[in-house]
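It is time I had a proper look at our fold encoding. Can you supply me with one protein entry, sequence and fold together? It will help me judge whether the discrete encoding reads sensibly. Leave the record below and I will have a look:
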Amino acid sequence: MHHDTPAGPPEDPDGTADRRPPELRRIVALFRPYRGRLAVVGALVAASSVVAVATPFLLREIIDTALPEARTGLLGLLALGMIAAAVLSSVFGVLQTLISTRVGQRVMHDLRTRVYSRLQEMPLAFFTRTRTGEVQSRIANDIGGMQATVTSTATSLVSNVTAVVATVVAMLALDWRLTLVSLALLPVFAAIARRVGRERRRITTQRQKQMAEMAAHVTESLSVSGILLGRTMGRSDSLTDAFSRESSNLVDLEVRASMAGRWRLATIGMIMAAIPALLYWSAGLMFQFSGTAPSIGTLVAFVTLQQGLLRPTVALLSTGVDVQASLALFQRIFEYLDLAPDITEPTEPVRLRRARGEVRLEEVTFSYDPGGAPPVLTAVDLAVPAGGSLAVVGATGSGKSTLGYLVPRLYDVTSGRVTIDGVDVRQLDFDSLARSVGVVSQETYLFHASVADNLRFARPDATAAELERACRAAHIHDHISGLPQGYDTLVGERGYRFSGGEKQRLALARTILRDPPVLILDEATSALDTRTERAVQASIDALAAGRTTITIAHRLSTVRDSDQIVVLGGGHVVERGTHEELLARDGHYAELLRRDAGRRESADAVS
């Protein structure tokens, strides 16, 4: 199966001086609607950092003044101040976590919704060349993998930067010489973190691709159809082995992603933890060579600050590594957001209140790959008056279904035009087109929901009485009424609790409920046995009454009464006329009819 290869993010059109990577600019833009709440978070972070660095100064006063001078009143106030600072810092931390998590979850929601909305706009061709599991993995795994980055990394970044800045300022205020000693190795630490980040980003990209592969395998093999195919072909064990290999590959990548740079970052932590010893040694050297060593209180306060610097500095380095890894996830999501829909609504669309139903194809040529593949349809001219019926027949691969897809604009013509009531379908708004054209195909799709919910997908506001009328017209009401829960019965995954004929009649009832003036029947009975076909055909006749009907037919017994029959061959119209006219001509249609009769006789003999 082919994978879709989405286009990358667009380039900066104006070449502005903003040198941030495109992903970073777009990530920042995701948070823009919530800048007010983020400003509150920033204020809380700043307040928390100021309160945190106040504690070492209180400690210095306790050691240098309150204790040596036995000032118990001052000692009590300073101790209370340290307790109050701890309480305030904790409260500010909880509030900033609450607000930032809410903002992060809203950003995640926006991303999920935008990706889903963009995929809804993509043409049918996109889904024919993209595995379902790949699409699901982008929405679930990739966006889910960004959760920690989106919900906490931004706040962590601001919090730790503020803490580092406030701590360094406080350290300078205490002793600038000790500050230089403490910060001497920071450039080395930053270089190590950058290298680790690049490594994590590369591994994360590989990991997400592997997760998408595994999701695609699960989606295909654990669907109802996949289980049936695996068991009937005796391939369940091989499918399990294939899944085991995919999962084993993921294990290796997960371990590599988790361990990437851990030793380097651990080395940074060990060095920073050893810096207090360096500070004590430096203070001793100052006293020996200059006689101006810091006081005991200053030294203890400084070491406390330096130890406080350890946590935000390591966190900042780790955050940089996490951001690098998350950029790979954002890039995969932005690839989907940057997909350009082939079929778009015009800027000033035409809106039809209620179409009469006249359908025309004027010199229509269509190719699935206009740049290379030969056209599937070439210069097709057809006209179906409002309320009329047209049958399109032909051998497999002649372009019958493709012709049917062009009317509801599931694909756009390569040249020529398709019109409804004289309006090019490319000029209609999507709602008008969906209201005007109904499609019933042999591939009936039902959601894992109740019968009523599946019917109301066509018309959410439909009453119970309207559901019943539609089902009576489709000759399925009596069957539904006989079910233990009636219209509240779950249809099962893809409708597997219902037979092919029952599912087809449910689909017809759903279309009757929508009441489109134009109806496309794409081989709606070709997958059914002869007996079931007759029952479903009665439902189709009820549905087609008074509507413009285009029937894509495989079994020719269903098209005898059509106003016009068109025979396609190699993408061209090779014959047209009524059933009697084409029989009398004894050409392509007559030959197709003889073959169809032979197949039906064989099927009846077997049954």
Summary: The CA atoms of residues 272 and 310 lie 6 Å apart. The radius of gyration is 35 Å. The beta strands are 359-366, 377-384, 389-394, 415-420, 423-424, 437-441, 518-522, 548-552, 564-569, 572-577. The first helix runs from residue 22 to 31.
